[in-house]
Write a structure and sequence with these properties.
Blueprint: H1 2-34, H2 45-50, H3 52-56, H4 58-79, H5 87-91, H6 95-117, H7 126-133, H8 136-163, H9 169-183, H10 187-207, H11 210-231, H12 236-243, H13 246-274
Helix pairs in contact: 1-4, 1-8, 4-8, 6-10, 6-11, 6-13, 8-9, 8-11, 9-10, 10-11
Length: 299
């Protein structure tokens, strides 16, 4: 019971702090753009959103706010030592497992994309995401900084914490993936992020290296950013229907799901067999020498 309460407390702390940092970053951006602070800034959210100055710079404000809050959250996690940003965690993985884990993520992306398309889920943030990808800071934050933060936060801090305190590794992996998915708050992203979180969590568990999942997450977000830049906020299924009959679209989706799904299983088995047994108790990989900020005591 104590373990459960302690774990729940750590998760709640991280989520609350990140939410507060996002709100504070938005408040700061409002001040920079508007040039003044209003005592009732949060009393009427609709009026704030409809403010012509804010509306005209909405995407830039979102990009700046995301960047500031993500960077601040990384600093918070590092300073509180909920996850120590050691050099070894980003380098202590051989090229072969790194390549296999990256290839695995590359194959599960189309598999999960097709699965999510088959579900009646809304994408409430499609237009905002499209706008962010068209700004330099927004594209960088979505493609690089956000994946770095989310892996440090959800895999390194949350899953790593649970892995050291729960008997079942899979319970920790799935729990962290669920928190990761629900935190996105967007119906289509909740399902997709949860599924992807399970894959990321298993890769982190097997390799012990955060770099293996950071590379995969950056790959996922970069592909999504590029697709949004090329296609805009257009449903992929609608785009296919313009050039292919519905039967052909369904057949291509089934083929994509089965082919990339089978390939994902093959790569997962290949990755699993290429690695030594997972140490008990589980810990992240470590290298000899000193950390970037701390020494390796307790590694």
């Amino acid at each position: 019971m104590n373990n459960f309460l302690r774990t729940a407390g750590v998760i709640a702390l991280l989520l609350v702090v990140y939410s507060l940092l996002q709100a504070m970053a938005g408040y700061l951006v409002y001040y920079i753009i508007n040039g003044s602070l209003s005592p009732g800034i949060f009393s009427n959210v609709d009026a704030l959103i409809e403010n012509p100055v804010i509306k005209a710079h909405k995407i830039d404000a979102m990009a700046i706010g995301m960047f500031i809050s993500a960077a601040a959250m990384l600093l918070f996690i590092h300073v509180t030592k909920l996850f120590r940003l050691r050099k070894s965690l980003f380098t202590s993985i051989a090229f072969r497992p790194l390549l296999l884990s990256t290839a695995l993520v590359f194959t599960v992306i189309p598999t999960f994309n097709v699965l999510v398309q088959w579900l009646p889920l809304e994408d409430l943030l499609e237009n905002e995401f499209d706008g962010l990808t068209h700004t330099v800071m927004g594209a960088f934050t979505i493609s690089v900084l956000a994946p770095l933060l989310e892996e440090v936060m959800f895999r390194g801090a949350i899953q790593g914490y649970m892995m050291r305190r729960m008997r079942s590794p899979w319970a920790a992996i799935i729990a962290a993936a669920l928190v990761f998915g629900i935190f996105h708050m967007n119906p289509v992203q909740v399902v997709y992020a949860t599924l992807l979180g399970v894959v990321f969590g298993w890769i982190y568990y097997r390799t012990g290296s955060l770099m293996s999942v950071i590379v995969g997450h950056v790959l996922n977000n970069t592909i999504a950013t590029i697709m949004m830049l090329l296609l805009g906020p257009t449903d992929e299924k609608e785009l296919l229907n313009e050039y292919m009959p519905s039967e052909a679209v369904i057949a291509s989706e089934i083929f994509t799901f089965m082919f990339f799904g089978a390939l994902s299983v093959y790569l997962a088995v290949k990755l699993h067999r290429s690695l030594p047994p997972v140490p008990v108790p589980w810990h992240e990989s470590c290298e000899t020498g000193r950390d970037l900020f701390f020494d390796n005591t307790g590694c």
